[in-house]
Specification:
- Strand 7 and strand 8 (200-203) form a beta hairpin.
- Helix 2 packs across helix 4 (112-129) and helix 7 (213-226) packs across helix 9.
- The protein contains 9 helices and 11 strands.
- The chain is an alpha/beta fold.
- The longest helix has 19 residues, at 281-299.
- Mean pLDDT is 94; it is low at 1-9.
- The structure holds zinc ion (ZN).
Length: 301
């Protein structure tokens, strides 16, 4: 109750990293209601990528300045998709952190929670981040990934496309998938598959999930902004799995519903009722602000 009270008091616009709740709603609705379902390899997935490209160009990211790039790949055999990346604090020698959200959906769901709202949050993160990128001591890559739903192909293509030097510079990822929730229910959690201990990077397990640099930073963000804990949960089911397999600190910042004391996927997951009209966009702001706060912690000078 305390967390919900604080959330309603602070909203999307008060305090550090104010986000535009109405814009997140509008962008979620655009993907679900105007574009429609966006399965990997379809014209609808490409249309979403075109729309994201326009939005990022409006924010000042550009191909000519080297802050915007779009790369195609074959994911599931015979299925072609694209990743779209906007970069803040471009520096070929600096550490790299990235923030990701997949923009494809399954065929049978509008995909508002999974994952249009996270895409909308990531646009807001980009809009905010670009205004303080001079304060970055690292390169922050905002990556909209294609082809997640049929096997995390976008994240694999992104990682396979890194040069050895880029891989050396690469620190980790904050992934967003199902990063908004219905009103009055839900728990913001941080899913990891492992983390750093005194003896190096280790696998986590279901009962004892491990913190890593990313989960620690978003957890600190949640405490600082909302005076509430963001539990670390052992969990996969999205692109952060691929980054984890590459040995990078990774976490999915997402909303779950609590059943019998355990955080589980929301009932709308992959359903026809995963629609924009049933999302509480303050939960989306909460995710986005925690991501921005964590980025400042991880990638600030
Ligand atoms: Zn998803």
């Amino acid at each position: 109750m305390i967390a919900l009270l604080l959330l309603s008091l602070s909203g999307c616009g008060a305090g550090p990293f104010p986000l535009q709740e109405a814009q997140i709603r509008k962008d979620t609705e655009y993907q679900c209601d105007v574009i429609g379902v966006r399965p990997a390899g379809t014209d609808k997935e490409k249309e979403t990528c075109d729309w994201l490209e326009d939005r990022l160009e409006q924010m000042g990211f550009s191909y000519t300045a080297g802050t915007l790039s779009r790369s195609g790949f074959e994911g599931y055999p015979g299925v072609y998709s694209e990743n779209l990346m906007a970069v803040c604090g471009v520096d070929a020698e600096a550490p790299i952190w990235c923030v990701t959200a997949h923009y494809d959906s399954i065929e049978t769901s509008p995909g508002a929670r999974d994952n249009a709202s996270a895409v909308a949050i990531l646009l807001e993160v980009a809009r905010d981040l670009v205004t303080w990128q001079d304060e970055l001591g690292a390169e922050v890559r905002i990556v909209f990934l294609g082809s997640e739903e049929n096997g995390y192909h976008g994240s694999r293509a992104y990682l396979e496309g890194l040069s050895p030097k880029e891989l050396e510079r690469h620190q980790g990822v904050i992934n967003m998938d199902i990063s908004a929730a219905s009103a009055g229910e839900g728990q913001l959690v941080c899913c990891t598959l492992g983390g750093r201990t005194d003896t190096g990077y280790q696998e986590g397990n279901f009962l004892e999930p491990l913190d890593n640099a990313v989960s620690q930073a978003v957890g600190a963000a949640c405490r600082a902004l909302y005076e509430t804990e963001m539990p670390v949960v052992h969990g996969g089911e999205s692109d952060h799995v691929t980054f984890h397999q590459w040995g990078l600190d990774s976490a999915n910042v997402c909303w779950r519903v609590v059943e019998d004391g355990l955080p589980v996927l929301p009932p709308e997951y992959h359903g026809e009722d995963d629609i924009p009209q049933t999302i509480d966009y303050e939960t989306a702001c909460m995710t986005g602000r925690c991501v921005l706060w964590a980025l400042k912690e991880l990638a600030g000078k």
